[in-house]
Amino acid sequence: MLVKQVQSPSVRQTAPLMRCSARHTAIRHIPGRRALEVVARDYPKPAFETAETFQEAQALSAKLKNAPRPAKSLKVVIAGAGLAGLSAAKYLADAGHQPIVLEGRDVLGGKVAAWKDEDGDWYETGLHIFFGAYPNMMNIFKELNIEDRLQWKEHSMIFAMPNLPGEFSRFDFPDIPAPWNGIIAILRNNQMLTWPEKIQFALGLLPAIIFGQKYVEEQDSLTVTEWMRKQNVPDRVNDEVFIAMAKALAFIGPDRLSMTVVLTALNRFLQERHGSKMAFLDGAPPERLCQPMVDHFTARGGQVKMNARVRDIVLNEDGSVKHFQLTNGEVVEGDLYMSAMPVDILKLLVPEQWKPMPYFSQLKELEGVPVINIHIWFDRKLTTVDHLLFSRSPLLSVYADMSTTCKEYADNEKSMLELVFAPAKDWIGRSDEDIMAATMKELERLFPTEIRADQSMAKIRKYKVVKTPLSVYESRSGREAYRPSQRTPISNFYLAGDFTKQKYLASMEGAIFSGKLAAEKVVDDFNFRSGASLSSRSSSSSPELVAASALLVMAALGAGATGFGLL
């Protein structure tokens, strides 16, 4: 029995598709209390190479690449060709091993998979954003020489104003060192939070600043909402900012999301000058990111097998892995084995002999969160911007006009909106028609002069609804204690995946980093230990996180007390 990870997307088409490869260069201006002006052009690659996190990631890459060559190049069979599995394969090949990647479907990418429809247009499992605070991701782009495939946008975060249809509120980050750029961005914005609310939120962060990482980790027992109330932060801060932030970070609301996730994100965005900068990939992830990773490790003796779904993990008498049995009857043997499958699929494949072990029994506490991604092709160009937008709607999380933000999807005449429908728990079983009807009502609010739910204005040419019933692990409160390390109790079996223990949580960076950490465990066990056997291995601890910045509190208190606003 296997979990169906992604359901077949639905298609509705009402008119022939017309494409244009030109880039949209118009300026978007929305009148109101605060104008939205974003020029639709790409920005230079941030100089994040000087960031400590980037250099740490770079050092780990160098460690794996320059590790002593193993006495014997090991065949490592990896189940799953998502970002975690491909990352593990890439770094294992760098260390002199031979990865054999098994992918159950006919497409690379796992949770970043994408397909082409009958018109040649791509549709994806999610709206994938690359942050400057993704050091291992940025390193892998550099190592593969594909950095030019990232389209960096203006250093801003843009939120819709629910009570002012068609208007937006911005957090613009000046080009100065962190944390001052983030502090000024927050202090400049007076639409979403009042000064008393900013001060109260800053005071609420004091324990995280004073007690550091220990405090951040302890907050995993609280949801965002519970933490806000415990710290006497006004409910409006939750309503105005953290509902949108929670849905964007983890596809769930603040009433379920662990506060550790939010504190970790704030930490990265406040401490790294370019951490909150965003980029879009210039095309579909399977071609523009995943395939270069495959090309890298296959050029070094690795393999990838598509439509190779694992049915059973077959064991030796001592409980170690003997081989992977595929659904087509094929047996795949190696020296070592790794699962880079989603946690829900892994749980179904854990052998009976392993299930009583605490390491594997804890997996029952982890489960994927449902996600719905929607693509809508319209018959005209909407007045959107070249950026990610936070909808702040009850049903939608973030959205973007991909015909403006992404080169491969560029169309100067017609828009294609990509939207994340979240939380999706109550909608994953609903019909595509119901989901689209609800989405169009939300878009009517976001585009009051251009879209009507009845399509009396902009008309839908076609749409696709991509449902992922079990996506990234649900990072609700209390889950951190159950996330396993990449090294298992089984001598020849390792784990990778965003659900495994690493500091970037359920994200693309988390997936890439987990695969890299899994490769490091193999290298530590077999490259650096002369004469190491498959039954003797060392142990390691997870890297620690950094505390949040105190300067936000100081600036908020100082500016609030004097009445001096940075406008």
UniProtKB/TrEMBL annotation:
* Domain Amine oxidase positions: 83-522
Pathway given in the UniProt record: Carotenoid biosynthesis; lycopene biosynthesis
What biological-process terms (Gene Ontology) are attached?
carotenoid biosynthetic process
Task: State a GO cellular component annotated for this protein.
Answer: membrane
Pfam families, per the entry: Amino_oxidase (PF01593)
Keywords, comma-separated and alphabetical: Carotenoid biosynthesis, Chloroplast, Chromoplast, Membrane, Oxidoreductase, Plastid
The protein's superkingdom reads Eukaryota
Asked if the Swiss-Prot or TrEMBL record annotates the protein with the keyword Secreted, the reply is no
Query: NCBIfam families, from UniProt?
Result: phytoene_desat (TIGR02731)
Query: What is this protein's record name?
Result: Phytoene dehydrogenase
The protein's organism comes out as Pleodorina starrii
Q: What high-level taxonomic lineage is stated for the organism?
A: Eukaryota, Viridiplantae, Chlorophyta, core chlorophytes, Chlorophyceae
